[in-house]
Design goal:
Structural class: mainly alpha
Shape: globular
Distance between the termini: 62 Å
Number of helices: 15
Order of helices and strands: HHHHHHHHHHHHHHH
Largest sheet: none
Length: 381
């Protein structure tokens, strides 16, 4: 009797392809269920993800402290320099958070409450201006008073205050989830500490695993790209943070000297918005000028705006380039396009991360084109 030979590789490959198609169809047809499961899974992993992010952001500072501890000769410090550096880092962070919660945050809350209390005066001032312009015949083809009334009907002071009251009363519902937020926060801190302690072994494990799964050429290329990406991304974040702190402190001092109301809050706003290239500083300066106009008059607002423009020019031409040291080297058009696309799809976070992503993409494309031209020249030779 003749034995039938079966090509198992042929049928296994086709079976796996068919199962992949069926599973893909099920996932697409039930994408909402898949998204819910993925969202719950990410919620479970959120403390670990946040802990890794905190460790990544603090890694540069921890390495600098550890490097400073290497100058100490006692063997006790040398053997435990990483743990001591992490302890010093987190004690400093806890102290800064304590200062912020006791001094800065109450002042900001007070400024925000005072600003909300001034909203009726701002509203009445706009209406008076509209009435005067129409009575003088300056603008007779646009019903300016009616336009302002319709525009601010949904944002009237009474409605804004009622919305704030409802938001404050709804905070009671958040107290039930406060315990889980606190637990997740402390769990993230613990995970970040352990990540900083054992980062060498963690990175070594992933490096060994990648070397086993990838070819030597692909492993070397991937490692080089990851190192380049990490250098660009980390340098951008650290440089923008340092620059934002300098601008925020300088703007707060400048606004305080010019006797601008809400100087601390507006200085903090200028520092935070300065982390978004081009648009952030413009938006914060306009908001500061508008508030200065309503609280101090037109001449005061113009003076404040000129002072902020001078500060931004100093930051953009002297402070910023020295901190960044040409790490990105992007064309302004590419920066504007990347910020627009990142903000349209991912909001404020997308606007902030779009610039380093564009810089990394530029380096990848440039190196790919250079390697392609080198290969073509070798083949032609």
């Amino acid at each position: 009797m003749r034995k039938i030979k079966i090509n198992w590789n042929y049928w296994i490959i086709r079976f796996l392809f068919l199962m992949t198609v069926i599973i893909g169809y099920k996932l697409i047809s039930n994408y909402q269920i898949v998204l819910d499961v993925l969202r719950r899974f990410l919620g479970v992993l959120s403390p670990f993800i946040m802990g890794f992010i905190i460790a990544y952001l603090l890694n540069g500072i921890q390495k600098r402290i550890e490097f400073l501890l290497e100058t100490f000769t006692p063997s006790f410090i040398q053997k435990r320099k990483r743990g001591i550096s992490i302890l010093i880092l987190y004690l400093v962070l806890i102290y800064l958070v304590f200062i912020a919660l006791n001094y800065v945050v109450p002042l900001i809350i007070t400024n925000v409450i005072d600003l909300i209390a001034l909203l009726p005066a701002f509203y009445n001032y706009l209406i008076d201006v509209a009435i005067r312009l129409e009575s003088q015949g300056t603008i007779d083809f646009i019903p300016l008073e009616q336009f302002l009334t319709n525009l601010t009907s949904d944002y009237s002071p009474d409605q804004l205050l009622s919305q704030w009251t409802q938001a404050l009363t709804s905070l009671g519902a958040l107290t039930r989830s406060l315990s889980s937020l606190v637990i997740n926060f402390f769990l993230s801190l613990i995970i970040s500490i352990y990540t900083l302690l054992f980062k060498d072994s963690i990175l070594g494990f992933f490096s060994t695993l990648s070397s086993k799964l990838l070819s030597p050429h692909l492993f070397a290329s991937s490692k080089r790209w990851l190192q380049t990406t990490n250098q660009i991304f980390y340098k951008f974040i650290s440089s923008q943070f340092i620059d934002a702190c300098i601008v925020g402190i300088s703007a707060t001092i400048l606004l305080s000297l010019m006797q601008v109301k809400f100087a601390v809050t507006l200085g903090l706003l200028l520092g935070i918005c300065n982390m978004i290239p081009y648009f952030g500083s413009i938006f914060a300066s306009v908001v500061t000028a508008i508030i200065s106009f309503f609280t101090g008059g037109l001449s005061h607002a113009i003076t404040v705006l000129i002072a902020l423009i001078i500060l931004q020019q100093i930051d953009g031409n002297i402070i910023g380039p020295r901190i960044m040291s040409g790490a990105l080297n992007l064309n302004p058009i590419i920066i504007i396009i990347s910020i627009t696309i990142g903000g349209a799809y991912f909001g404020i976070l997308g606007m902030f991360l779009a610039v380093p992503a564009a810089a990394i993409l530029k380096i990848i494309i440039t190196n790919w084109l250079e390697n392609s031209s080198i290969e073509e020249n070798q083949q032609s030779a």
